[in-house]
Design goal:
Elements: H1 9-19, H2 26-68, E1 71-74, H3 83-90, E2 96-111, E3 116-123, H4 126-130, E4 136-137, E5 148-151, H5 152-158, E6 165-170, E7 183-194, H6 198-201, E8 204-207, H7 209-215, E9 224-229, H8 236-246, E10 250-253, H9 254-257, H10 259-297, H11 299-307, H12 312-343, H13 345-356, H14 377-403, H15 407-411
Parallel strand pairs: 3-8, 5-7
Antiparallel strand pairs: 1-9, 1-10, 2-3, 2-6, 2-9, 4-7, 5-8, 6-7
Helix pairs in contact: 1-12, 2-10, 2-12, 2-14, 10-12, 10-14, 12-14
Length: 414
């Protein structure tokens, strides 16, 4: 007998009857139900976790590169001369939206209230500082040309507010063998800023470019030029153009400067994906168990169908449909559940936080006061295909075993 078209009416009818468990087959049905639930939970967990990690990475990238710039041009020995002319030429590069000169150094900040803390001091034009959207500044730098803006956590450690004075101490430049007193100068606090990441809010100070050049004794040079581009994810063309214009200057982009940090995030993301995939894999093994038991229980029925003209291919397709149906339904349920949770993850966080009676995250990571989530269609499709692939693969051995069953042996003692 020649096989009919794949998944014909006969195979679908028998597979549907096998999926309807009778009382004596309830144990097999329970195993299949656990398989369906396992696949659904695995798919949902993968979608939710990957969406949260995508949102977290996007938020972190936005904050880090929003504060440091997309491309930086450094001069030799930390100083860049003729920076105004170079900055003007770089502004003409396609895709470049802003070029800002920056003077950067380290200093010890002290206050009359007795507070002291180390900080990174950055000097840049007030307009360029205002363009940093990641900063929430409580006062305008233009209100005080000599004023400084501190991270709000740093201001708290120093015990100062707007209008108070902070003294900055930095090593003196010159021959290190000479006993030179450190440079000390007092500045008025013109405002505070908030990024949402502890290391920045507790360790950064901004001041006007001219004041920084005077304080760090480099009146005609800057430490580097900070370049912002239209699309930070596609830097190659802009970076090559910047390198041609900058000549011997050193060029760095945000991916190089933060490579270890984002590589660690990628490794964590990959490991999490693999671990959650094990949930789907375990559910797939349950499909194998339930189908093997179903084949053993239906041995007489398989033999009768074979003697009535059913081919091995038809038998194999019957059990393939039985197992694949569990994987298909489980995947669809998991997709609906996962997308629902991923798009409402912030509401879920608020509910859990209200039930727990406290913040879910420490103050050091207060940028997670709102749990980010970003669902990417490509990842959802990949998760669905993975679950379906494992489920379908799990049906092959039991289906093959059912197709190889010898009708004579199955009916010998009947």
């Amino acid at each position: 007998m020649r096989d009919p078209a794949p998944f014909g009416a006969f195979e679908l009818l028998v597979a549907r009857r096998y999926l309807r468990a009778r009382r004596q087959e309830s144990f097999i049905s329970v195993i299949a139900s656990f398989s369906l639930i396992g696949i659904a939970l695995g798919v949902a967990a993968l979608i939710v976790v990957m969406s949260v990690m995508n949102g977290l990475r996007q938020d972190l990238v936005g904050r880090v590169i929003g504060l440091h710039g997309h491309i930086t041009v450094h001069g030799p020995a930390g100083r860049l001369a003729n920076y105004e002319d170079l900055a003007e030429r770089l502004r003409g590069v396609a895709g470049v939206v802003r070029v800002a000169p920056v003077v950067e150094g380290q200093a010890m900040a002290t206050s009359a209230q007795g507070g002291a803390a180390g900080a990174v001091v950055r000097g840049m034009p007030a307009g360029d500082l205002a363009a940093k959207r990641v900063l929430t500044v409580s006062a305008s730098q233009n209100e005080d040309d000599e004023g400084i803006i501190l991270g709000d956590r740093l201001a708290g450690r120093l015990g100062v507010g707007i209008g108070d004075r902070v003294t900055l101490l930095a090593p003196a430049r010159g021959d290190p063998r000479r006993n030179l007193a450190p440079r000390a100068r007092g500045f008025r606090v013109a405002g505070t800023f908030h990024v949402g990441m502890y290391e920045y809010d507790a360790g950064y100070i901004f001041m006007p470019l001219g004041a920084a050049q005077t304080y760090f004794e480099q009146p005609e040079t800057v430490s580097f030029l900070e370049i912002m581009v239209a699309d930070p994810q596609r830097l190659d063309a802009a970076k090559q153009a910047v390198a041609r214009i900058a000549g011997a200057a050193k060029i760095h982009d945000w991916q190089q400067s933060n490579a270890s940090f984002f590589n660690a995030l990628q490794v964590e993301r990959t490991v999490t994906f693999l671990l959650l995939t094990l949930v789907i894999l375990v559910a797939a093994f349950n499909i194998i168990s339930s189908l093997v038991m179903l084949v053993k229980d239906k041995g007489q029925g398989i033999a009768i169908m074979r003697t009535m003209g059913a081919t091995r291919g038809m038998i194999m397709r019957i059990f393939f449909i039985s197992g694949a149906s569990v994987g298909l339904v489980g995947t669809l349920v998991g997709l609906v559940l996962g997308l629902t949770l991923a798009t409402n993850v912030e509401t879920i966080r608020e509910v859990l936080q209200a039930v727990g009676g406290g913040a879910m995250f420490a103050a050091e990571v207060d940028f997670l006061a709102r749990l980010p989530s970003r669902v990417e269609a490509g990842e959802v499709v990949a998760v669905a295909l993975l679950a379906l692939g494992l489920s379908f693969a799990a049906t092959l051995f039991p289906s093959w075993r059912a197709a190889r069953l010898d009708p004579v042996e199955a009916l010998r003692y009947e």
